[in-house]
Amino acid sequence: MINQWRQLLATLEVTEDDSGLEILSEDELTAFEIQNNITLPTDYKEFCQILGTGCLWDLVLIFCPSNYLLETQKDMIGAMIDQIRRYPSQDFNRDIEYINLLNSAFMFGEVGESRLIFWDLRTYSESDKSYDIYWADWETPECGERIFIGRNFFEFVRDFCYGTKSFDLIPELMEGLSPEDIEYTFSRFNSSIRMLDWDAICSREERSPDDWQGNNPA
């Protein structure tokens, strides 16, 4: 299966910034799993060995696992749960289900500075060795809905990040863009140095993060 990542990599224009690379070995990934008592999806581990942490199409940031990422996730997920509790919706069951989902989340990606991409760790299956993938707005979780993206991480990268699935599932994000605008680029960076620094990652583009959101900042 790792060949599918090599084939995808061959189709991309790859750059890297001055923060360095973050590509993990199989031993490093196994050590992370043991240390944190987690099973990472197989295709995600292959991604981390072949492509590493980076920005896909100047749109989606995907991070290799690290303790720094876990600490960042803890703060962001905690803030989302606090927000839902502080401003409850009229649907009590919806709020409880959302909080339970967030308590089981493992974040591996982000779009801009307001949207998270994560797995629901309650949904692991040996049949595909993966979890349900969700997308959520972390700035307004009390009114925004989480969106189920799928389970296969390779298909998430191929069909959502570099394909048209994002136009179908999250049309508001893609407002003002068309499938012809898709750029097959991958910008590597080191998350421990440039974690969530969206402006720095996209500095080679004239467009701002808001331009990717149809000029409608979240």
Any chance you could write out the topology, listing elements then pairs?
Blueprint: H1 2-10, E1 13-16, H2 26-36, H3 42-50, E2 54-56, E3 60-62, H4 67-86, H5 92-103, E4 105-111, E5 115-125, E6 130-137, E7 147-150, H6 153-161, H7 165-169, E8 185-188, H8 191-194, H9 198-201
Parallel strand pairs: 1-8
Antiparallel strand pairs: 2-3, 2-8, 3-4, 4-5, 5-6, 6-7
* Rg measurement, Å: 17 Å
**Series of secondary-structure elements, N-terminal to C-terminal:** HEHHEEHHEEEEHHEHH
Overall pLDDT confidence: 88
Number of strands: 8
Give the spatial strand order of the biggest sheet: 1-8-2-3-4-5-6-7
Low-confidence stretches: 196-218
How far is the N terminus from the C terminus? Answer: 37 Å
The share of residues in extended strands comes to 15-25%
Query: What is the 3D form?
Result: globular
Describe the overall structure.
By secondary structure, the chain is of the alpha+beta class. 38% of the residues lie in helices and 20% in strands. The protein has helices at residues 2-10, 26-36, 42-50, 67-86, 92-103, 153-161, 165-169, 191-194, 198-201, and strands spanning 13-16, 54-56, 60-62, 105-111, 115-125, 130-137, 147-150, 185-188. Strands 1-8-2-3-4-5-6-7 form an 8-stranded mixed sheet. The model is unreliable at 196-218 (pLDDT under 50).
